[in-house]
Amino acid sequence: MAGREDERDDHVKSVYAQFGLALYLAQVLEHGLANALIAAELLPRRAGKPVPREQWEAEFDVFMDQQFQQTLGRLIRALRAASPVPSDLEALLARALEKRNFLSHYYFRERAEMFMSRKGRDQMIDELQQAGKLFETADERLTEVAKPLREKYGLTDERLKPLEEAYFKTVKHDL
Question: Per the CB 3.0–4.6 Å rule, which of 34, 94, 128, 173 could disulfide with 67?
Answer without folding.
Answer: 34
